# Entry
Amino acid sequence: MPAADLARLASIARDCRVQIIRMLTHAGSGHPGGSLSVIDLLTTLFFARMRHDPRRPDWPDRDRLVLSKGHCVPALYSVMAKAGYFPESQLITLRKLGSPLQGHPDRIMLLGIEAATGSLGQGFSIAMGMALGLRLEGRPSRVYCVVGDGETQEGQVWEAAMSAPKLGQPDHPLDNLCVILDYNKVQLDDFVKKVLDLEPVLEKWKAFGWPVIEIDGHDLAQIDKALDQAEAIKGRPTFIVAHTVKGKSVSFMENNPEWHGKAPKPQEAIRAIREILGVTEDDWTGYLERNPETAAVVKELEALEKK
Ligand SMILES: Cc1ncc(C[n+]2csc(CCOP(=O)(O)OP(=O)(O)O)c2C)c(N)n1
Ligand SMILES: [Mg+2]
# Structure
């Protein structure tokens, strides 16, 4: 991918990180850690890979994304808003009664959501069924499914892992399915290694019959290349192991289980946004003067504090 395209993706991912922090703070609840770990993957999928059209969310030949780790849907909402599925101003209705932006994705409430997920372990099976259906219909669509590392402790994941390379063979193999592991090494309130170690991850998935690609899930060029490779593999679905950092880009959230499922307070959010944008404390006032959009977000957060 040319450097200019990578820079554009990096800029989108940065904006989306800011929106994730903004909407969670307004909601007063939600999951920042896993939303920040998955956002580079979702940005690359939505803005450099998937065939989709925000004006036609029901286009039969669209590519599908199933966010099996549904609690991280703020990341998905941020890319969907950026792509034009709905206005960014709506993001702060996250988790509010009646809002289409529920705490877990709802395909009835929000067009463009492919599957209601959140009960961990189920999205992968749904994605597999979609991939088979699309193959049987002879459609060109691809299905991308993102699973959490803690999520893969669910038994249902291993039923799908066992089935997907065999389903549809020999005439309709699921080479239109790509499953991506957001391997951030943290689940809920502790480290995966301590709760129930997944290693050896690569060997396990290979043994179940999957071609496996290992990447840094924050390196946009590596993500793009892995998606190219996955698309070129015929006859079997592909599994991408993306090493990530939970809470990526916010120092006090990075690799800290405390920030799995807790919203920042307004002042914490403002600091998080400053760090995401790479601005020092000394330069912050000047930065806000030069960047009215960020200044508006900060003002809105400060107003929350006074409530
Ligand atoms: C079946 C099920 N059990 C428990 C939960 C509660 N839960 C929500 S998030 C989470 C941890 C998920 O960890 P991981 O898959 O690693 O997600 P990430 O680190 O990306 O946030 C758990 C146990 C759930 N949503 N579904
Ligand atoms: Mg995790």
